[in-house]
Amino acid sequence: MCTCISKHLEVENDRLYLDGVDLLQIAEDYKTPVFIFSESKIRENARLISDVFKQEYGDCYIHYALKANSILSILRILKSEQLRCEVSSGGELYKALKAGFKPEDIVFNGPGKTLEELKYAVELGIDCINVDSLYELDLLANLAEKLKTRVGVSIRITPEVSAPSIKTGLSKTKFGVEINQVVKMIRHALEKRNLNIKGIHTHIGSQVTDIASWSKASMVVVRLADQIYEDLGLELDHINMGGGLPEDYTETIIERDTDVSSYLWGSIGISEIAKTVSKSFKELKYNTKLYIEPGRKIVADTCLLLTKVVNFKERSFGEKWLIVDAGFNILPSMRILRWYYPVINISRINEKHDSPFRIGGPLCDGEDVYHDVEGEELGNPRLPKYRRLPMNSQPGDVLAILHTGAYGPEITMNFNGMLRPAYLMILQNRVVKVIRRRETLNDLVSYEEV
Known about the structure:
Blueprint: E1 9-12, E2 15-18, E3 21-22, H1 23-30, E4 34-38, H2 39-56, E5 60-65, H3 72-80, E6 84-87, H4 90-98, E7 106-108, H5 115-124, E8 128-131, H6 134-146, E9 151-158, E10 166-167, E11 177-178, H7 179-190, E12 195-201, E13 205-206, H8 211-232, E14 238-240, H9 270-281, E15 289-292, H10 296-299, E16 303-314, E17 320-324, H11 333-336, E18 343-345, E19 355-360, H12 373-378, E20 387-389, E21 398-402, E22 422-426, E23 432-436
Parallel strand pairs: 4-22, 5-6, 5-15, 6-7, 7-8, 8-9, 9-11, 9-12, 12-14, 14-15, 17-19
Antiparallel strand pairs: 1-2, 2-3, 4-16, 10-13, 16-17, 16-21, 18-21, 19-20, 22-23
Helix pairs in contact: 2-9, 5-6, 7-8, 8-9
């Protein structure tokens, strides 16, 4: 089974094809910037994650995290692959339902759910709400009582386990309930007749490439579940390990760029994580369900972004700059998180990618670059100072930016009056479908009133 987008890319007659579709022709027909998804790759990822985890732990349920990418066409594909979903807002809950997910397929996460959002979820009767505090638990209990219903609840805990990149499993963050407060909180919850305590939930971070973190977190939640059982006699319906499955952001069809942070290499596989988590779960004193909430790992490498070089300059000290039509308005993680994405010149796909270039976006902002300018000034850059491209790269060339399916399309913006790009899907029959249209100038003012 394929495990990377490069297996879906093929060079023929100096043209690069994704799932048999000519990408230069896509750029010509649909203009740039434009995102292109592979339906086949989405399905491969969903099946691989599901198969691997269920092979290690049969009573396992994969809940796709909508925050990674909530485009309806993608959600419907994942629904057809028998995945469930995790939402973190009322808006995501609405989209999940529009995509066909049933309420019993949905868990609701997040530290700041409003009363209106909770009411929406309770009235729908979703599987579980992952509560983030004692305050939220009581709010939910009072709401359920008023609505004369019973609601499934899981307690989000902080296992005090760190992660290599984005950390969410520590009590110094805004998330979750401290471990030493959980038994007391559940005892309190059991007194509320409108609450059905179904599980505990944790999420230690995004892009977790350290297997020791997975091991420690899974052992912490299993020990806590055993303690809950011993102290309260409660067998949990499920334990939710959250997401964080890592993606290899260096995978490309040209030479890998090794000058990137180690956590971007995705150095551990799904199978290793599944074995580690399952080993801990099998030590539990009773049988329970395992919930997993992957987002990035399902969609990141299913998409690439095409962008065109629109300007060129060469400095007196030798640096060459390519200015492209996609900046951090299209890929905000590039600036916010200093996230790395491989870049290849598909107009010169058969030419050697060995010449150093600086790459900048079109925005009137000094940080709109594919490099870590601030880090360079401080002496600890998190991104390569140069990108390697063909020596003759020039305006008019089309570049492909890989692994942009997660947290790219989801958080585009209109900064500088830029229009959000179109999103395309290459279907399994090689038909290209627009799954979200490119914005028009009128869209820039459609929500405003004078």
